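Supplementary Text 2. Reproducibility record for the structural model of the 487-residue chain.

All settings were left at their defaults, and a single model was retained for analysis rather than an ensemble. We include the record here because the model underlies the residue-level annotations in Supplementary Table 4.
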Amino acid sequence: MKGRVAGMVLLAACAGEPVRPPQVVQTAQYTTTPLPERTVAVEIHGGHAQHFAQGKDIPAAWWGLFRSSALDSLLLRALKDNPTLARAEAQLTQAREDLSARTGATQYPHLSGGVSANRVNVQPASLGAERLPVDMPLNLLMASVGVSYTLDIFGASRRELDALRAEVDYQQYELEAARLMLAGNVVTAAIREASLREQIASTEEVVALQARQLGIAERLYELGTAAEVDVVAQRLTLAQSRAALPDLQRQLDQVRHRLAVYTGQPPGAAGLPEFRLDELQLPSELPVSLPSQLARQRPDIRAAEALLYRASARVGVATANLYPQINLSANLGSLATSASSWFLPGSGFYLLGAQLTQPLFRGGELRAKRRSAIAAYEQAAAAYREVVLQGLQNVADVLRALEADASKLEQRAAAATHARKYCEIAAARYEAGAVSYYALLDAQQKLQGALLEQTHAVADRYADSAALFQALGGGWWTAQGSDSARH
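Retained model, structure tokens:
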């Protein structure tokens, strides 16, 4: 395999053209078994079925599918003010200017002008003469224009420009990847905030229930129909449930701090919207691009492809450096003893020249650099294949997660319904003296756990829906005025 890759690189270098990306194993589907047409549904918010739309494109503003104006406005702020994006944009500008500078330096002749003034004093005796035809010392003034140009016979300059163009493409895709990651981070953090608020609400509901049960236990103890140990145990359970609230609040505050930083604001900044699960809509339709399109859509794959082209171009530069370089030059000017006589007849001169430079002996340096460039290309080719396969794995993992999320929520919702009914029955029977306090305590703990697990399951569906849009590339190529994906 390595020999075949090296041969392709050498042929491309000699032809002065970048090689094509290596072929990755083609597949017609992401997972080993086909996806269902739609997921299972549950009669709670965030529990409706999701339809997998095979081959459908992803909108550029994919976060709009969650139908939250607060999330939309927060994303716009983040995309405008995030410092990571500002750095990526500056790196792209730098790459473009480097290309522009090198294009001007290699594709056009160098033209320069100069003026010099010298005071010259020569003793006649040093020249073996009694006197000179001019009086010494004298002022010698020279004005000249020089032109030089290096012929790119073996393509060194052309391939160097190819490498710089690939660097521009790489920085462009890195910018798109940064935007995609930022959007995914903001959406995931917003979903995390909504989940934590739901967990806090569920915990507070359980705390309120346990407080009511404590009141009942204390009243029964006063009447002599309940033991003191039941009251103490209920107080312990209530205290443990309340102890969970500060940690949940801490996590919520940290997520809010993270959202502020994403928008380019300090953690203590105010004005961020609040997010709740019942205010976010779970996308009913999930666009799923074809596996054959993934390599043209994910910016990290396109960035790896650009690095591959850059490595190929550098092989061409290293190959061209083995051969002669020809430089043409011309100088035109005027030499006089005063500025007023610069352009008088007889003061002008010109100089034409051509220089050929051929490396003869460099201790094996140039060939070693060429072999190093080929090895760098092989690394870039392997990295490209790895990124493509990882992209396919990301999509496959998320698709299976979405399918499992729906089934998990179905079971969690059923468990929460049963736990609530069980707790209501246990509370009524305990009040009537039909069951022990420990049966009531067990029912309360089951309800608390079932409610939190249901909240986690709902949040997982939202988070994995966002992860799917990220894994498929985020739809940046569908933005108005963007034609990068077609190149």
